[in-house]
Write a structure and sequence with these properties.
The complex is a heterodimer of chains A (410) and B (139).
Chain A: H1 3-11, E1 19-20, E2 23-24, E3 26-27, H2 38-50, H3 61-80, E4 89-92, H4 95-110, E5 116-120, H5 129-138, E6 141-145, H6 156-162, E7 167-173, H7 185-194, E8 198-202, H8 207-210, H9 214-217, E9 221-225, E10 236-239, H10 242-247, E11 258-261, E12 266-268, H11 282-298, H12 300-319, E13 324-327, E14 338-343, H13 348-357, E15 360-361, E16 363-365, H14 370-376, E17 381-385, H15 392-409
Parallel strand pairs in A: 3-15, 5-6, 5-7, 7-8, 8-9
Antiparallel strand pairs in A: 1-2, 4-10, 9-10, 11-12, 13-14, 14-17, 16-17
Helix pairs in contact in A: 2-11, 3-11, 4-5, 12-15, 13-15
Chain B: H1 7-14, E1 27-33, E2 38-47, E3 50-59, H2 62-75, H3 80-95, H4 121-138
Antiparallel strand pairs in B: 1-2, 2-3
Chain lengths: 410, 139
């Protein structure tokens, strides 16, 4: 992607034109949430201004348009991840809800005392807590694949020992939100399947950046969120193959998810609606569909290439600073556009406060990965994360702002 | 930025005098700020009704550590009732508009600079909440 293209892209995002503390905004927190291009904001506005109506029920023009918009978004997202059919795409609120859906529905139907669930030590709390809760209720046993402190990569020898015939589910993050590590999804999935276990992949960080195709991952569940990929908050997806979804009991009960209802019993709707009780998040699904069009229009391969360049540049610039400690893989090709670091022994919240004063937004703290921080023996890190709208100048601004931190804490 | 990071705060953070073990400590409290993962442990030696000495161990930001260090000085030699009152006054100082600052909190009043940065108020209060827990656990 040429620099000219990039400047055009930056202009697509109204928020990136604003100033903070009198300085142009530098947004380096896309791993937490991405910014939204104008086309997505316009789509939300258009929906509420022109065709707001409930879906699947109304027998009038507006309701038909809303239904077409909502189901059209489902198809766009199904196409984006290469799902074999839109019915395999369940709309939920976010990655967390998608994982909880699996834990409550599939987990409670299939996991019993003594069964083992294999996770990793680098999971976000969203892929730890649902399984801790399930284990508390069922007596299942949790196992964790360790990662190397040196390389930030999973110990696959340990994985081969931890995944056994007792394993019922292997659930892991595709791309770490702290280290940026891209985990060997296929190798882990094949290992799990060889022992008859199912595989859930937390794609919150990978789907927005890597051009993920479900068939390439060999997984049984994929969870991801719209807001990290230029879409609105409050909308996410659980993907699973038809066969698995049809065998799973419903998660939440209510309107929309039913076929026939009597006072004391009910039959349930087909997938995907079986899992979508109540009025769904229509506007934000539509907005997300437009975001996916926008991403596809640029091309995920180009976005990935751009982010590798940015990550290389960030690692290079930060490595020149002798008081900066970097975490995670150093090879930008082995990781996503996420660089976690600490500056000397300055607490990451102090770093972020000074950076904010310079108009630079980064995330700091434990990143919802307390067990990982404990293993790294740190309270937290600073983290800069990139997307298609960032450029080298943003990274220069970050490095320059670190000098202000030194001025105060040096 | 100097608004937030007053020199007095940085000095206390970088060269604390109360980040230390307390001989014969008989009150201890531990807290965590789930927002940032910061941890603080307050230990004190209480005889009869009097706080003879107090110190802390912490993994935290400059605001929480400076607050802890100043707090230990402010409560040394005070009765439990006086300390409870100081804790209330400090919370008021950090969350409301207060006209007069109690003499014992004069140095701590510098932390009012944090009020412009609402997420950091919790950092300043963390040591005091931990102290309260330590003293409550004792009684």
């Amino acid at each position: 992607m040429s620099m000219t293209d990039l400047r055009t892209r930056k202009a697509d995002f109204p928020i990136l034109q604003r100033e903070v503390n009198g300085k142009p905004l530098v947004y380096l927190d896309s791993a937490a949430t991405s910014q939204k291009p104008r086309v997505v904001l316009d789509a939300l506005d258009d929906y509420y201004q022109r065709y707001n109506a409930n879906v699947h029920r109304g027998i009038y023009r507006l309701a038909e348009e809303a239904t077409a918009g909502y189901e059209g978004a489902r198809k766009k997202i199904a196409d984006f991840i290469g799902a074999s059919e839109p019915a395999e795409v369940i709309f939920v609120r976010n990655t967390t809800e998608a994982i909880n859906l699996v834990a409550y529905s599939w987990g409670r139907a299939n996991i019993k005392a003594g069964d083992e669930i294999v996770l990793t030590e680098m999971e976000h709390h969203s892929n730890l807590i649902p399984w801790i809760m399930l284990a508390e209720q069922t007596g299942a046993v949790l196992r964790h694949i360790p990662f190397s402190l040196e390389t930030g990569e999973l110990d696959m020898d340990a994985a081969r020992k931890l995944i056994t015939d007792r394993t019922k589910l292997v659930s892991f993050v595709h791309m770490s939100n702290v280290l940026g590590t891209i985990n060997p999804a296929v190798e882990l999935a094949d290992l799990a399947h060889a022992h008859g276990a199912l595989v859930l992949i937390d794609g919150a960080q990978s789907v927005p950046h890597l051009g993920v195709q479900v068939a390439d991952l060999h997984c049984d569940f994929l969870a991801f969120s719209g807001h990290k990929m230029l879409g609105p908050t409050g909308i996410g997806v659980l993907w699973a193959p038809r066969k698995i979804l049809e065998e799973m009991p419903p998660f939440m009960g209510g309107g929309e998810m039913i076929a026939q209802v009597f006072l004391d019993r009910a039959t349930y709707n087909e997938i995907p609606w079986k899992f979508e009780a109540g009025t769904p998040n229509i506007a934000d699904a539509i907005g997300w569909g437009v975001a996916v069009d926008y991403l596809a229009g640029i091309g995920m391969a180009d976005i990935r290439a751009h982010e590798i360049e940015l990550t290389e540049y960030a690692i290079e610039r930060l490595s020149e600073e002798t008081d900066v400690t970097l975490f995670g893989p150093r090879d930008a090709r082995k990781k996503g556009g996420v660089v976690a670091f600490n500056l000397g022994d300055v607490h990451s919240h102090d770093v972020a406060a000074v950076l904010d004063n310079e108009g630079v937004c980064i995330r700091v703290g434990h990143h919802c990965c307390q067990p990982m921080m404990r293993k790294l023996d740190i309270a937290g890190t600073a983290r800069a994360s990139f997307y298609l709208y960032n450029d080298n100048e943003d990274i220069d601004r970050l490095v320059t702002a670190l000098a202000s931190v030194r001025r105060i804490f040096g | 930025m100097e608004d937030l990071y007053r020199e007095a705060i940085i000095r206390r953070y970088q060269t604390p005098s109360n980040r230390r073990e307390i001989d014969g400590a008989n009150a201890e409290g531990f807290s965590q700020n789930p927002l940032c993962g910061d941890e603080i442990r307050i230990r004190a030696r209480v005889t009869d009704d009097l706080i003879e000495d107090a110190g802390f161990a912490a993994r935290g930001c400059s605001i929480s550590q400076a607050s802890a260090d100043m707090m230990a000085d402010a409560i040394r030699g005070k009765t439990l009732a006086e300390v409870a009152e100081l804790a209330d006054s400090f919370r008021q100082l950090m969350t409301e508009e207060v006209e007069t600052v109690p003499p014992a909190l004069e140095e701590l009043a510098v932390l009012r600079s944090v009020k412009k940065f609402p997420v950091r108020i919790k950092c300043a209060l963390l040591p005091w909440d931990t102290l309260r827990a330590a003293l409550d656990a004792r009684s």
